[in-house]
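Illustration: Pseudouridine synthase RsuA/RluA-like domain-containing protein.
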Amino acid sequence: MNKRKRDQQEVVEGIGMGPDMLWQTPAIPPHPHDYVFRNGIRYVKPYYFEFIAHVKNRWAGKTIVDLFAQEFKGRPYEYYVNAVKCGRIQVDGEKVPVSYIVKSSQKISHFVHRHEPPVMACEVPILQKELDVLTVCKPASVPVHPCGQYRKNTVVGILEAEHGLAPVFPVHRLDRLVSGLLILARSASKADIFRQQIEGGLVRKKYIARVVGEFPEDELRDSAKGKTASTKFTRICSNGAQSIVLCEPITGRTHQIRVHLKHSGHPIANDMLYISDETVDRWSRGSSADRSACTPDNALTSSIDEKVVNDGEENSNVGFSIDPMCTNCPNLAPKGYDTDEEGLWLHCFQYSGPDWTYECPYPDWAKLSQKT
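Result:
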């Protein structure tokens, strides 16, 4: 047995766990059994994972414990002391003392019991499957690709786990809380073609939003002051209290549509980041999004009722071992994440380029009831 394997065995045996514990890396693909469905929420069973980083210049000269305590504040100082002592934190594949001073460019491994944030329990419906292109309807609350604490609870992860589709290359972004059309290339070269067209201004994007108030009938263009971003808005329908609006970004920035709608006086009706208390009182009291309004159109999804477990508590462990060092156990979700999160009433329904167009059906919330 080589030294690295011996060290890893000491890590697991030092906390009373068997030497057959599997440390996952990004190379290990997601599997359908990795997910737990409860009360409309998709959880990921916690798993052991090796996070790898290299010492930045500004980290150099710090003790290994101080580095983690100052740069990664999600866990208490005592956790990092114990993690270093038992080898869950290593430098260049070796166990080190808590007083160890790190040097620039050294490889740091942190072996953690990883708890991913939950997302809404929606399928990822495949809309079109071509030789080199895949289009899907991204559910709200699900990130597009691995980022931050999300890895398996992403569109890319779910497609690999539940459809065996990998690798795929997202060609454009959709914010986590936004739903709708997502184009994925089946090769890096095809993704580059799409991205060149997007960067060259050859691609048109269309979204719909459900906004506060009676949006003007006339076409409206809005640009945030001092920002190189512009969006064209056209009212589709209104019941007086809320409106469905076509949104066409002309030039793009993060959160651009949400910012411009707020600037117009008609923010997205359940966008708590940009809506004011005054607006809620005036237009939207009692009409915030609920989970049923955020699910995709029934025609887009197959039922997942058979996979949903409604008995038991969300915080109880299902099919995974409690880790005595883990700061999130026995919960399925990591601390600080809200399982009652709602999807945003903003939906991408069309992308079109020089010789192609892809579309996604409207969600249920795009149907307005008459004002009462």
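Reading the tokens back as a structure: The chain has a mean pLDDT of 83.
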